[in-house]
Amino acid sequence: MGHTIAAVTDPATSPLLAVGSAAIDAAPTPVKEFAVQTFGSADKPVLLAGMAVVLVLITAGLGLLAYWRRWIAVVGLVALAAIAGAAALTRTPDPIAVVPALVTGVIAVAGLLWVRAGVLGSAGTQSGTATGTATGTVPGPGADVTGARETPAAERHASPARESPLDGPRVRSGQFVPTRRGVLIGGPAALAVAGAAGGTLLGRRRDDGAIGRDRALPDPSDPAPLLPEDVQLELPGITPFRTPSPDFYRVDIALSTPRIDVDTWSLPIGGLVDEPITLRYEDILDMALVERWITLTCVSNPVGGPYVSTGRWLGVPLVDLFEQVGVRPEADQIFTESADGLTMSIPLDAATDGRDAMLVVGLNGEQLPVERGFPARLIVPGLFGFVSAAKWITRMDLSTYDRDIAYWTERDWATDAPVLTQSRIDVPGPLQRVPAGTVTMAGIAWAQHRGIRSVEVRIDDGDWQQAELAADGGADLWRQWRFDWTSTGSGRHDVQVRATDGRGEAQPQERTAPFPDGARGWHSIAFVVE
Questions:
Q1: Alpha helices, DSSP H, located in 29-98
Q2: Candidates 3.30.565.10, 1.25.40.10, 2.60.40.650, 2.60.40.420; correct CATH number of 422-529?
Q3: Coil, strand or helix: which one is 427?
Q4: Secondary structure class of 185 (helix, strand, coil)
Q5: Which of 3, 7, 61, 289 is the least buried, fewest Cβ under 10 Å from its Cβ?
Q6: What is the pLDDT of residues 41-84, one digit of tens each?
Q7: Domain 229-410, CATH among 3.30.1660.10, 3.90.420.10, 3.40.50.2300, 3.40.640.10
Q8: Strands 366-367 and 358-363: what pairing?
Q9: Rounded to two decimals, what is the model's pTM?
Q10: Is there a contact between 97 and 10 (Cβ–Cβ < 8 Å)?
C-alpha cells in the first residue's frame, strides 16, 4: 500500500525503494562490487527480494510478540515506518516524502491490532465453548450425583462444541471476527496484489501522461556521418553493431527510475563560470544539435561481459555550452548531479579536447527513453560511464577536484577513467557444439576514442593469428571481427582473443577485477567439435 501511495506522489519515496536506495548508498565498495559481479543487472531485484524476505521475518516476529506484548510489537512497526520515512527524506527533501511511510505505518499497526483481536477472539471462543460444555455436567456443592448420566463417546465426538480456529469467519457480539486462515492467506495476498498492481499501474500512468515524452526532436544541424555498409558482419549470434534502444545495457544506483516532467525540469550550469545559465528542455531543443554514433561501456563490465552498447546520440556539444557561460581557468572538472542523487565528475580536458562530448536529448532518432536518462544526460566518448554518462541530469557545475568529490570517487573508484581496450567472443557460445569442418569465430572489440587496429585469435594455446575485421565506423565505436578455423578432429577446444588499439597497445593478458578502473585480460571460451 505504501508503494501504491508513492506511485501517486513520488516513486522514489516508496518505503521499500527508499530503504533499498539508502542501503545501496551505505553499502561499502566491496559489497557493491560483489553484487554487480555476482548478480549483474539483476542486482537490484535480488536486493529487493532479500529486503522483502527480511521484512517478512521481522514482521512475523512482531506478530508473534504481539500475542503477549501488544505495544512492543506496535512500537516495532512504528520504528519500521520511521526508518522508511527517514530514508524517503534522503531521496526527496520534501515533507510529502514521508506520506507513503506514514500510511504504511498506520495500516500496519491497524492490521496488527485487527489480526491480534481475531486470533485471540478465536482462541477465546474455542476455550469458552469447551468450558461451558464441561461445566454444564458438573454438579454444584452437595448436589445428588446419582442421576447424572455420562455422555456417550459417540455423542461427545459428534458434539459441535469444539470448533477449529481455522474454520470460517464468525460474528461475535455483532462484530466480524477474522480467522487465522483468512488472515494468513487472504490478507497478505490482497495487500500484495493491491500494492504491486496498484503501484505498477499508477507508475505507468505517471510515466505515460505526466512527463512530456511527446516532444518532437528537431533535425540535427550536423547529422551523424553514414556508417560503412560492412560495419555489420552477417553472422548468426554476433552482437548487432547498432544496439536497439530497449536492449541498451543499464547499470545505475536507481531502484526506481526517476520520472521527470519536462515542463518543470531545468538544468542550471554554474560554478566556476563567468555567466551562469539555466536551461529548460525547450532551450536545448532550440540549439544547434549534433548527432553522433558512440559506443558506451560500464566500468563494471567483466572480461567478456555484456555492459557495452552502441547508439546514435543527439545533443548539444558541451563546448558550445561552455562558450556561453565562460569557464574560469582554475576549473578542472565538470561536476554533475542527477535526479537519483548520483554525482559524477568529468575531467574538463577530456570534454574540451575535440571529442564529441555532448548533453544528449535523443537516442536512435527518438527522445531518450526514461531508463536511459530522459530528459537529458551526458556522454563523453572514451571514458567509462560512471565518470562521463550522467543520466537524469539536474545540475552541472564547473568545479575543481579539491572542491567537489563525486559519488564513486568517495568509494575509491578511479577519478579519471579512460575506457580500456577489450574484446569479446560472441560465436561460438561457451561449450557450444559445432560440426566438424570450418568453424567460424566472431565477436566485437572496442577502445573508444582510440579505435581498434587489429584483433588476434589463439586456439588451444597455439600461435596468435590475425582475425578479419569488419569496416571501421570510427574511433569512438566498437568493431566486429571474425576468424575461420578448420577443425582437424572432434573434441573440446579453447579459444582466446585479444585486441590492439589504434595507438598500437595490445590488451594485457593478466586478468583484473573491474574495481577500481575497469577489467583487464583476454576473453576465452571452450567449444566442442562433433
A1: 29-39, 43-68, 70-91
A2: 2.60.40.650
A3: strand
A4: helix
A5: 61
A6: 677 788 888 888 888 899 889 888 888 888 889 999 999 999 99
A7: 3.90.420.10
A8: antiparallel
A9: 0.75
A10: yes
